[in-house]
Amino acid sequence: MITHRVRAHASREDLPREAQLAWKLAETAADPVPVERDVAEMIGNRVIDNAAVAAASLARGPVAAARAQAQAHPYAPGAAVFGLPAAFRSSPEWAAWANGVAVRELDFHDTFLAADYSHPGDNIPPVLAVAQHRGLDGRALVRGIAAAYEVQVDLVRGICLHEHRIDHIAHLGPSAAAGIGALLDLPVDVVYQAIGQALHTTTATRQSRKGAISSWKAFAPAFAGKAAVEAVDRAMRGEGAPSPIYEGEDGVIARLLSGPGAVYEVPLPSRGEAKRAVLDTYTKEHSAEYQSQALIDLARRMAPRVDLARVREVVIHTSHHTHYVIGTGAEDPQKTDPDASRETLDHSIMYIFAVALEDRAWHHERSYTPERAHRASTVDLWRKVRTVEDPEWTARYHDPDPAKRAFGGRVDIVLDDGTAVTDELAVADAHPAGARPFGREQYVAKFRTLAEGVIAEAEQDRFLDLASRIGALDANGVRALNLAAPAGALTAPTAKGLF
């Protein structure tokens, strides 16, 4: 890996494009290094994972709305839309949109945490949609997805957006554009322009994940994917982007991040070095924000040792990010409100820990129902939970050694007589370093569980067969990478829009 030092430059410095971060990202994407076998296998796992959570969300309102918008934009050859029959094809940017919402709606797919946050699986819908539209094979698809993961993970390693309250889709727009560029084998200069356009159009505030969180939390990454498809289309037609987009005097670093004096260090593979970043990412066993995964497992482990009727207080000692994003450090009253949206509840570790402690389990639907959130015992316990930032856990969260990085915390459950039940967990059980790491078997089991009752078994079998050999698929196999719901199973949304 080569570490690139990135800073703002005054316009008079005339920074050449070959020295700009967007160009370096484009070079990484365009480098034709072969995808290694274990990387291709993991990409197949993540395609299965995305399809699993998309299947479970097909009937939900935001997903139905996005699907209806895609249906209003049929196109040939086009791309498939989750839930719809194989014969229907949408314009690729709208397929990326609809499928991106389906993948993101339940907050249940993969994650990478470092200087910033990310869900790298959000790259798959736009890259896949363009692959289907252009009739490309599995080898090209895997190359594109590997490049998208590499760019996003490396940006997340080097540039913190959250401290400036910029939403993490500002790393997703460029990575999806880079992945599409790699998929299409575009020249570096075209990918460079697409990355700049995608970044410029996807910088937004984190209010989408603050306060009363709405369905836009699921739409935001899909918007970035759609914007990336459109950016690549414009760049291929010769249209340019703001330059330098990161380093300019009024660019992202100077005006949105740490300012003209800041220096960021972004690691990228050297020329000819394999793109292996997907192997550093991890998926979720539970449908909730990633920083709650280990704490859900910890709650289940602690529950048999606790008389819940005697709990006086629950204190979660954890990292800065966990405390301020999903904990009491966020100072969001909505995070303790039984009438809060599902999107808000899955970003409330106070709610999540209380329910997991009571139920000794977690479910993507049952754990979030209004009845569950209003249960009197839950509300009472929920409001006894608070988080505390612990410098030790913050340091472990940012440990430069991925094998030592920790996203959990220590929990003290204080009883009415002052005694405490204490335990800690560094990583979720499903994490690569956890008690039960996910492999192909676990990805398939997650898929089967979430698709049950939604997707016919024969359709599940067909999809799994294709995804399990993704790198060897021909163009027809790539076009068939979709899940169709049984006829009549999906109802159209009642509200109408413009289309």
From TrEMBL:
* Domain MmgE/PrpD C-terminal per the UniProt entry, residue ranges: 286-467
Molecular function (GO) terms for this protein are: 2-methylcitrate dehydratase activity
What is this enzyme's catalytic activity, as reactions? (2S,3S)-2-methylcitrate = 2-methyl-cis-aconitate + H2O
In the Enzyme Commission scheme, what number(s) does this protein have? 4.2.1.79
Residue ranges annotated as coiled coil are none
Q: Which domain of life is it from?
A: Bacteria
Is Transcription among this UniProt entry's keywords?
Answer: no
Assembly state and interactors? Monomer.
Name the chain's protein: 2-methylcitrate dehydratase
Native source species:
Glycomyces sambucus
